[in-house]
Write a structure and sequence with these properties.
Length: 256
């Protein structure tokens, strides 16, 4: 049985967008402007910066000083995507968020898709911006990157036994009930594995999942944060996730 959303999404829900950044000085200002254009009120945009050496943190401070709906969480060092998101999620929950959106700050995720993902939360607890359902796509990637991404999603889906096509994607809307239920303190994954683990825990807990098609584009400027270590982490953590729940019954399936 899926959880019943307790907060109306179309009106009145407090929406927090969490933007983790590391060396995004060229992207931050335009992506915040685009997010503010497409996110309805009440809203807050939380920039989580891991002490970027390129001045991203200073730009974030300037944006926060100029806009009441923008705030900054400075972290002392680069620790990876997962820890940055967890810190942002905690801040959002403490700030009274009803819905928490996670999105890349490099325009890989199109801010114009924000209203569609939030609309999906009317009937779901976790909304995934999906590249691999009908209507979804990836642009600007070479064959190797496409193979790694598709192969990683298929691997995670098969190993975990869940009916979700894009487990490694990072464009999501989560109800606060999901974040409160999945035990953020025990998540230690960093890259793809973090995205897989948060979604898998939500499915295991019986929350309803909806995949909304998106077109993913390569970052506009700057360098990709993808590393071999991130790929290898996902390769061993995914079966570890399944083993940790072995014997607990089949995971609840998502709705699409």
């Amino acid at each position: 049985m899926g959880h019943v959303p307790a907060v109306p999404t179309e009106e009145g829900a407090n929406v927090w967008l969490v933007l983790p950044t590391y060396n995004e000085a060229s992207n931050l200002e335009p992506v915040v402007a685009a997010a503010r254009e497409h996110l309805r009120q009440p809203r807050r945009i939380l920039i989580v910066d891991d002490s970027s050496p390129d001045g991203t943190g200073e730009i974030a401070e300037r944006l926060a000083a100029s806009h009441q709906d923008v705030s900054v969480l400075h972290r002392p060092r680069k620790e990876g995507l997962g820890p940055a998101y967890i810190a942002g999620f905690r801040e959002a929950l403490a700030g009274g968020a009803d819905l928490v959106v996670q999105m890349d700050a490099d325009f890989s995720h199109d801010p114009t898709d924000l209203p569609r993902l939030l609309a999906g939360a009317r009937d779901a607890d976790l909304v995934l911006g999906s590249r691999y359902v009908p209507g979804g796509a990836v642009e600007d990637w070479g064959p190797l990157r496409r193979f790694i991404s598709r192969g990683g999603c298929a691997y995670a889906r098969t190993m975990l036994g869940v009916d979700v096509h894009d487990l490694t994607g990072g464009f999501k809307v989560l109800r606060r009930e999901v974040l409160e239920a999945i035990d953020l303190a025990s998540i230690s994954a960093f890259g793809y594995a973090f995205q897989v683990e948060t979604s898998y825990r939500a499915i295991r807990a019986g929350f309803r999942v909806l995949e909304v098609p998106i077109v993913f584009r390569d970052r506009r400027v700057g360098q990709s944060k993808m590393t071999k270590g991130i790929v290898f982490e996902a390769a061993w953590r995914v079966p570890a996730m399944r083993l940790s729940t072995w014997g607990g019954g089949a995971p609840s399936q998502s709705g699409r």
